Amino acid sequence: MSKTLDVIVAYGMSTDEREDAAKTLVRISVYTDHAVDFLSRLLAVEVANCADPNTIFRANSIASKAVDYYMKLIGMPYLTSTYGGNAMKVCPDAKVMSLL
Question: Which residues constitute the domain of residue 64?
Answer without folding.
Answer: 2-99
